[in-house]
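Table S2 (continued). Query chain:
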Amino acid sequence: MQRIRLTVPNGTWGLAAATAIGVLAGTLFTQSSAYAAERADHPTRATSRSANFADECADSSGFALVVDLYLKDAAAARAYDKLVARTVPKIQANEPNTLVYTENQPVGGGINRVQYELYRDKAAYTFHSNASYVQKYVAEREKYIVGYKVTKYCLVGGFSRGSSNTHPD
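Corresponding output:
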């Protein structure tokens, strides 16, 4: 379990999302070559059960996931991006306690994707995991991926200066 530590002024926990995601992105950036080698040599499958994840972060009020997705090829990446474009609006509309949910691709392109997910609490993570549209997404993405890696984080603090709801069409 990797833990991040940031300082949060009283009453600003809800602002922790952007900083936490920035820390997670920095972690992934430094590990990207290792993940690329893993994709080439040993595609992985990892699972994350709501109860186990929440128990690991028992003294944290937030949960974060970074999911590295290793896609089959460029055609699979395009189809996967369409699946994401159909799913993300449902997450945004129905999950006010999912604080951050983003899909990203490497700078300069590439077929792999990285998800950043930040949940307010155990209930938000459980709700997201059990939502029918998320379960449909998980089942359908199997057609497009050769493997994935999940890294879990317990939120310990931070802040956010704002958010952006951009998505390239």
